[in-house]
Amino acid sequence: MDEIKIGIGVSSIGRFLPLVGKAAGLFAKENISVEVVNQQDEEKVVTDIVTQVTPVGTPNAPSLIFSLLEGNDLVIIGGILNRPTFYLAANATIGGIADLKGKRVGINQPRRMAGMVMLALLRKWSLDTGDLILVDLGINDRSLEALRAGEIAAALLPPEKAFLAETEGFGVVADSLDLDCHWVPLATTRRFLAANRELVKKIASIYIESIRLFKSQPQATLKEVGRWLSALEKKPEVLEKCYELFAAGFEPTLTPSLNSINSILKEVALQDPRAKAIVAASIVEKLI
Predict the structure, then answer these.
(1) pLDDT value of residue 208
(2) Per-residue pLDDT for 199 more than 80?
């Protein structure tokens, strides 16, 4: 029996496909013993892929690209979410984008996905970072907690937190759905792929089957996801709303969008110009 550890960086439904697949017996069917490791840190999962602590995993796209720029041999073997899905949740003082001016707005670190998406949205909205007060809430993002405490007026949140905030009386005034930026790749290293191609191919196939099950078996999926997100399990309406969003967003063929990878490369290049030299197709390996 093959043994593998799969790394996920955050507690998000967008990363839970291996948990869905494991619960459905898909790994066991392929004679694979799997452990899903949640590092609660999108950059830590990249380090673990490189060091083969978890040789296959789902980092956020910017973390993967910054690691490539450091000389690591990461490769994208699947596109799970080819578009970012974040929502700007705000208190009652924010009725629209124009109301952000002069307000304290929470931001995850700019090198991370939510932070990078926030900066892209500000440009889209023709807002300069000087038009508002950006509050860096650090590595372990606590934007929702800061919003609840009144420390900030608004924050860009993942769906699970944004829809939860909505039930608590906060408004959702904008989203990132129109941004064509790669969000969640399935990744490994070229070194591990060369030595374990058939195993990695099986894992990619399991992800595809897990997406099919996710979309076609909502009740079983909701039950499994609820086990890992206790806050949402207590709010079934939020859990169902998140389910519908991710069911629509998961790429059923696991094909990475080169356009979306090019878009995130351009965003990274604004912080590290070396990313301009990376060709999107060169960091993708099609297995299926």
Answers:
(1) 98
(2) yes
Tokens of 188: 């490994």
Yes or no: say if 86 and 173 are a contact pair by the CB < 8 Å rule.
no
pLDDT digits over 203-226, tens only? Answer: 999 999 999 999 999 999 999 999
Tokens of 209: 């089957």
Q: Set out the domains of the chain in order of their start, with CATH numbers.
A: 2-82+181-283 (3.40.190.10), 87-175 (3.40.190.10)
Tokens of residue 26, six digits = 């898909």
Asked whether the beta carbons of 250 and 225 are under 8 A apart, the reply is no
Residue with tokens 């799969």: 6
Q: Which residues are registered as beta bridge partners of 105?
A: 134, 154
- What is the C-alpha separation between 145 and 82, in angstroms, rounded? 28
> How many C-beta neighbours within 10 Å does residue 71 have?
7
Which positions ≥6 away from 230 have C-beta within 8 Å? none
Q: Are 144 and 155 in contact (CB under 8 A)?
A: yes
Beta bridge partners of 196: none
Report the half-sphere exposure of 205 (CA within 13 A, side-chain side).
13
